[in-house]
Amino acid sequence: MSSDLMDKLTSLAKRRGFVFQSSEIYGGLASTWDYGPLGVELKRNVKNRWWRDMVTARENIVGLDAAILMNPKVWEASGHVEQFHDPLVDDRNSQKRYRLDHLLASQTPELLSKLATELLGRAPEGPPDPDTLTALTEAILAQEDVDLNSLGLLADGKAADWTLPRQFNLMLKTHLGPTEDEGSLTYLRPETAQGIFVNFLNVQAAARQRLPFGIAQIGKAFRNEITTGNFIFRTREFEQMEMEFFVRPGQTTKWLEYWTDERLNWYISLGITPGNLRVRPHGPDELAHYSTACNDVEYRFPFMQKGDDSEGWGELEGIADRGTYDLQRHAEFSGKKLSFMDPGLNEKVLPAVVESSAGVDRTVLALLTDAYHEEEVKGEVRVVLRLSPAMAPITVAVFPLVNRDGMPERAHQLVDDLMGDFAAFYDAGGSIGRRYRRQDEAGTPFGITIDGQTSEDQTVTIRDRDSMAQERISLDKVKVWLREKMG
Ligand code: ATP
Predict the structure, then answer these.
(1) 334 CA to middle of ligand 1, Å?
(2) What distance in angstroms lies between residue 341's CA and the mean position of ligand 1's atoms?
(3) What separation in Å is there between the alpha carbon of 63 and the centre of ligand 1?
(4) Minimal-distance CA residue to ligand 1 atom 23
(5) Beta strand pairing status for 424-426 and 446-450?
(6) DSSP letter (8 states) at residue 182
(7) Mean pLDDT, to the nearest integer, of 240-244?
(8) In angstroms, how far is the first alpha carbon of the chain from the final one?
């Protein structure tokens, strides 16, 4: 059922123009996707909603749009050059690549206990905990020319021929200017957050904010992910919606709690089923190098198998206590003072940060997954995307019942009239039943049909996508009716 659903979603996404494989005519490019006409609208609805709820509706949060390319020193200061990597090994037999820590986790408890005794001087009781696995990974990497073959590590239960493990940095490199030497090296940003930190004083001074206040940004980020997949869940190019909230040091715990609640409720407000959402606090072994506490908002993706490390849940967003780590490091590496005189405090302060870091693409995937339904109608399978009216790419489709008797003209007129206020769409292709089905798959909540009666009494039928119920209303009530349903 689960990977089946993924296949169905991927093919619906292509058929209806939500998401296409990138560079498809050349055979594609692994894990890169392009958003089609409906996908781009859905994505825009997500981003607009986020911007409205996080920036426009709040006095103490302002926006920023920083460049993707930054001075490479930023990434030294942020810790990404040194810390943002995965330990990798290859099996020469199968040509498969593994993350060393994941590989260790897949070994038998007996072997792990033996390795822990040899390398750490202690043997865990029962299956090894994440801390032991992390310590083992580090102990192995610390050995020069370590031979994984002599340690007896198996690949998917089979004998392997291991290469030396090596650290693989996840940042995508590029060179600026005509030479490709060290001096021209920079990175495509792996997160948008650093653009906010390095602009912290500019924004604070220009927007005259006092603590606590936030800076928000939406933009592309890039990571050379090793294990990609699950459609748009994990890609090498993706979009983030990040908000860094600057508070007095010592106040991060309460703000972490506040933003965790706010953010969970935000996903519910998009129409996602609450039972498919949860908050999961990170264990100490999972925390990123900059953070002391983190809560993930997760969605229950049916295609993520139970039993793997995600247990069926996938991260949509991380809400993290970054403390003063980033500003302190940037002050250190740039030699610039980043503390400021807070009018509310009357003293110089280097604020601490609580971050909300969400993925646009993962939110889109959660919306599509949650909305996808199949039901039997008159012996046929009806596929319907139950997107909320506020998220749906098209709000209302308008159909002339037949292509004559002035119906197409009248339908066009109605679309023109609606377009300023709603995402309206004209469709005259095929039988009315087929047009309904197409809009069901596109997630369009309402369909208006112009029929023979329209010219007589100025009424139309409106069909509700979910109940398929139709009602007849007068043309001049259509806008009010739609506005009411949009909430
Ligand atoms: P994961 O553990 O799944 O790799 P992460 O913890 O590294 O994610 P963060 O660094 O916290 O992710 O990034 C914040 C958000 O950015 C994530 O919650 C996710 O929504 C999004 N994101 C991160 N990496 C990717 C990716 N490769 N593809 C799509 N979205 C991503």
Answers:
(1) 27
(2) 34
(3) 21
(4) 359
(5) unpaired
(6) G
(7) 98
(8) 34
- The upper half-sphere exposure of residue 202, i.e. CA atoms within 13 Å in the direction of its Cβ, equals 9
Q: From CA 132, how far away is CA 122, in angstroms rounded?
A: 9
- Contact in structure between 240 and 360 (CB atoms under 8 Å): yes
Residue with tokens 């919306």: 367
Q: Ligand 1: which residue has its CA nearest to atom 8?
A: 315
Structure tokens at 164: 């030396």
Determine which residue's CA is closest to atom 1 belonging to ligand 1. 315
Task: Give all strands (DSSP E) within 248-400, no chain letters.
Answer: 277-281, 293-300, 313-323, 340-342, 347-349, 352-359, 372-377, 380-385, 396-400
Q: Which of 46, 220, 240 to mutate to test the pocket of ligand 1 (most atoms within 8 A of CB)?
A: 240
With CA atoms as reference, report the closest residue to 403 among 372, 379, 426. Answer: 426
| Reported confidence tier of residue 1, pLDDT bands at 50, 70, 90 | very low
pLDDT digits (tens, 9 = 90+) for 356-366: 999 999 999 99
Question: pLDDT tens, 82-97?
Answer: 888 888 999 999 988 8
Say if residue 121 is exposed, middle or buried (CB neighbours under 10 Å; 0-12, 13-18, 19+).
exposed
Q: State how far the alpha carbon of 404 is from the alpha carbons of 382, 400, 401, 428, 439, in Å.
A: 28, 8, 9, 11, 22
Which protein residues touch ligand 1 with a CB less than 6 Å away?
Answer: 223, 225, 234-235, 238, 240, 315-318, 357-359, 361-362
- Ligand 1 mean position, distance from CA 2 (Å): 22
Instruction: Report the relative pairing of strands 61-63 and 213-222 from DSSP bridges.
Output: parallel
Residue 127 φ/ψ, nearest 5 degrees? -65, 140
Pairing of strands 352-359, 237-247: antiparallel
Residue having the nearest C-alpha atom to atom 21 of ligand 1: 359
CA distances from 355 to 65, 83, 139, 337 (A): 17, 19, 32, 22
Q: Which two tokens stand for residue 24?
A: 């498809």
Q: Measure 394 CA to ligand 1 centroid, in angstroms.
A: 28
- Give the DSSP H/E element, type plus range, for residue 249: none
The rounded distance, in Å, linking the Cα atoms of 73 and 145 is 31
Going by DSSP bridges, is the β-strand pair 396-400/424-426 parallel, antiparallel, or unpaired?
Answer: parallel
Predicted TM-score (pTM) of this structure? 0.90
Which atom of ligand 1 lies nearest, measured to the CA of 314?
3
pLDDT band at 308 (very low <50, low <70, confident <90, very high): very low
